[in-house]
Amino acid sequence: MIDQRFLVDTAAGLLVLSSLAMLATSRIATGIRLVAIQGLLLGAIAFLDGHEGVTMRSIALGGGTVLLKSALFPWLLSRAQHEARVQQEPDPFVSYPFSLAGGVTALGVAVWLSDRVTLTPDIDALVVAVGLFTTFAGLLLLVTRRIALGQVLGYIVLENGIATFGLAVAEQQPLLVELGVLLDVFVAVFVMGIAIVHINHEFDHIEVDQLSALRD
Amino acid sequence: MPIAAVLLPAGAGALAFLLRSTPARRALLVLTAVLHTAIVGSWWLARPAPVLGEWIGVDALGLIVITIASVLFLVASIYAVGYLAREGEGVRPDFFERGRLFANEPEAVFIGALLFFLAAMSLTAVAHHFGLVWVAIEATTLTSAPLLYFHRHERSLEATWKYLVIGSVGIAVALLGTFFLAAAALTGGVTGTALVESYTRLAGLLNAGWLKAAFIAFLVGYGTKVGLAPMHTWLPDAHSEAPSVVSALLSGALLNTAFLGILRLLQVMTAAGLGDYARELLLLFGFTSMAVAAAFIVAQRDYKRMLAYSSVEHMGIIATGVAMGGAGVFGAMLHEVNHSVAKALLFLVAGNILGAYQTKEVGDVRGLKRRLPISGALWFAGFLAITGTPPFGAFLSEFTILRAAIEGGRWLVTAWYLGLLGVVFVGMAAVFIGMTQGPSAHPREREAWLAVLPSAVLAVIALTLGVYVPGALAAVAHEAARSIGGA
After folding, report:
1. How far is residue B458 from each of residues A97, B126, B163, B342, measured CA to CA in Å?
2. CB atoms B164 and A170 under 8 Å
3. Is A201 in contact with A80 (CB distance < 8 Å)?
4. Model confidence band, residue B35 (pLDDT cutoffs 50, 70, 90)
5. Angle (nearest 5°) at CA A51 between A50 and A54
6. What are B290-308's pLDDT values in tens digits?
7. Which among A151, A159, A208 has the least Cβ separation from residue B172?
8. Which residues, including other chains, have CB under 8 Å from residue A99's CB and lie 6 or more apart?
9. What ipTM was reported for this prediction?
10. Could you tell me the residue range of the domain that residue A105 belongs to?
11. Is B129's Cβ below 8 Å from some Cβ in A?
């Protein structure tokens, strides 16, 4: 039988690759597909990471994550994309090579940080590093993307990173809280999706840097 | 039962979406608000026992926050009935924003979201599990987003988008902080679930490094929702573009609720002997918030934005008070009450002014005391209350914080605090006097009692709290202060 930890680490490694790919792509459809893949990987980590083997908790959490993040989110985002008729990020604030370089730097910082913090042998340091990196990547996406849909993708990546980190350290979080977090994130993306449709309707575009009527 | 204060508005919110009749829906709003206040009021006589394995309970910190939210909601719901009757639904020929017609949100969505919003705030106040606190505070963002977008036009949409995205990202950072806290427990060998009480009891075991990191993430994350500078950027937009009745709740009730998220961890930090570290950080953000707010209040041309920046300032004052420790924390707890009452009063009156003058420009409003005498008087009373002029309540709480700074020998804090309060007073005085005085181009208008009575009640409360602090309130404020390292 293959070691469980090996599988978790493989999924975590793929998570890094998908985040780097997000930073390097301008196509919204690709971004949505990558987010769906991240949902699958996160679900796999949630399912495998339980130290007591397969339990009700790991099934509910893994299943919920996959359902929400790799099925429901992509569907919602595709609807919003269809509605707003955007194919790609027009021109981001930071060019793609630079954004990728930023991602690689963030990866270095995350690995360095996870090496410095206090951990117990129980905690998978690699998953901690990947969680931190994915969080940084999400923040990077959020500040560099100009269209609303790109920002929502960034928010989802950010949340995926935090969830990964949480899986590494917070095994004692009760299921109720985990499901509550999932529900909140779902509603957040849902409401943002509605807002995008309204923005598109009102302004005929979804470039958020042009939302600048309110200032001092 | 402490959970009743959550389930009641949540159930009523669901019902609001089902009801077809407009009068019935409005009656439901007010009835729920009355019952909610009655429930919360009964907690002042006898606190209910915690339920669900101590996940849900009422302590002094939460009691102050939920009482403010409940009373303001009651007052606002009465105002909202008059407001909704004036506004109506759908496109109206007199609704213009930048020359374009706009429509209102369906009233069922507005009232339903209002009630869900109250449920989310109540849950934050009674939640004692760090994960549940997070879920509840994020829920306050999501339930209040539709409230901001009541007037469906470009400006409110822009404000709603910023509120949603910046708020959600901020809250996401707080979730990371919650996991840092879990790491502090795990590496410290603390097992069991993340209850405020059990972490406070076992605080000495928690890993200090992770705990400090958690506090920073809480401060930045929940601080975004509190409107602490420099994470406050969404706040002036949201609080100025929302309908005034919503602004009153956002500024008066929601900011304290979000602050509670930070104070919950401060409880643990204090018990872990890291209180000084936490207080220095709070002071830094308090300082920054007061300074940034003062800079934008002076020469502010939009009176609702001015009120919004004033909220940033007062959150800075509360953070400073908590950072002073000792009696300063007591002052900060009282100031949560005093700020909320005065700010809600001002936003509700701002709604009346906006309704009459159809502008948020300070320069276009003249002769308020002639055109709307009651609103004009309340507007000026609100100005005195919010700037901490005696005999209003805010004077007492701001003075308590000042005295704590002086007695602690914090001369830099004292000078900074007094200086900025002075700058804000002068800046606001120019605006308020300009708007109230002067000739009016319009004759005196009749003012609906539903539009002025709620603010009048708040003005009476603000005045009363300046002359006399009820013993029960003082006791609860002291108890709350003691739990976060004050006296």
Report:
1. 57, 25, 27, 7
2. no
3. no
4. very high
5. 55
6. 999 999 999 899 999 999 9
7. A159
8. A23, A24, A92, A140, A144
9. 0.94
10. 4-210
11. yes
By DSSP bridging, strand B90-97 and strand B151-152 are unpaired
CA torsion through residues A182, A184, A188, A191, sign: positive
Distance from CA of B237 to the nearest CA of A (A): 6
- Domain residue ranges of chain B, discontinuous segments joined by +: 275-487
Rounded Cα gap, residues B228 and B306, in angstroms: 16
Token pair, residue B205, equals 């075991």
> What does the alpha-carbon distance between residue B322 and residue B263 come to, in Å, rounded to a whole number?
9
List of chain B residues whose C-beta atoms are within 8 Å of the C-beta of residue A169: 179, 182-183, 186
Under the banding of pLDDT at 50, 70 and 90, the label for residue B99 is: low
Asked whether the beta carbons of A23 and A102 are under 8 A apart, the reply is: yes
Contact (CB<8Å) B142/A188: yes
Length of chain A: 216
Considering only the beta carbons, identify the residue of A117, A142, A165 that sits closest to B176: A165
CA B287 to chain centre: 19
Please compute the mean of the pLDDT values over residues B429-444 and round it to a whole number: 91
Interchain CB contact of B152 with A (< 8 Å): yes
- At A53-111, the pLDDT tens digits run 677 888 888 999 999 999 999 999 999 999 888 888 877 788 888 999 999 999 999 99
| Substitution target from B186, B202, B220 for chain A, most A beta carbons within 10 A | B186
For B175, which residue in chain A has the nearest alpha carbon? A162
Shortest Cα–Cα distance, A132 to chain B (Å): 9
> What are A175's two structure tokens?
């299921």
Kindly report the nearest CA distance between residue B139 and chain A, in angstroms: 7
* Whether B165 and A151 lie within 8 Å, measured CB to CB: yes
C-alpha to C-alpha distance for B348 and B79, rounded to whole angstroms: 8
Residue A176 neighbours by CB under 8 Å, 6+ apart = none
The CA distance from B324 to the nearest CA of chain A, in Å, is 31
User: Which of B69 and B54 is assigned the larger pLDDT?
Assistant: B69
pLDDT of residue A52: 64
Indicate yes or no: CB of B168 within 8 angstroms of CB of A155: yes
Categorize the per-residue pLDDT at A207 as very low, low, confident or very high, splitting at 50, 70 and 90. Answer: confident
In a domain, A173, yes or no: yes
Q: Which residue has the tokens 């394995």?
A: B53
Which pair of structure tokens corresponds to residue B373? 């005498």
List, as one string, the DSSP characters of B163-214: HHHHHHHHHHHHHHHHHHHHHHHHHTT--S--BHHHHHHTGGGS-HHHHHHH
* Number of domains chain A contains: 1
Mean pLDDT of chain B: 93
Please tell me which of the candidates B168, B191, B240 has its beta carbon nearest to residue A172.
B191
pLDDT tens sequence across B104-138: 888 999 999 999 999 999 999 999 999 999 999 99
| A216: in domain | no
A89: in domain: yes
**Residue B404: pLDDT over 70:** yes
How close does chain A come to B373, measured CA to CA in Å? 30
Mean pLDDT in residue range A102-127: 90
CA distance B61 to B405: 22
Answer whether B186 sits within 8 Å of A214, measured CB to CB.
Answer: no
B158 contact residues in A (CB cutoff 8 A): 211-214
A215 occurs within a structural domain: no
Q: Do B154 and A198 touch (CB under 8 A)?
A: no
Subunit contact A122:B134, Cβ cutoff 8 A? no
Cβ(B111)–Cβ(B134) below 8 Å: no
Phi and psi dihedrals of B72, rounded to 5? -65, -35
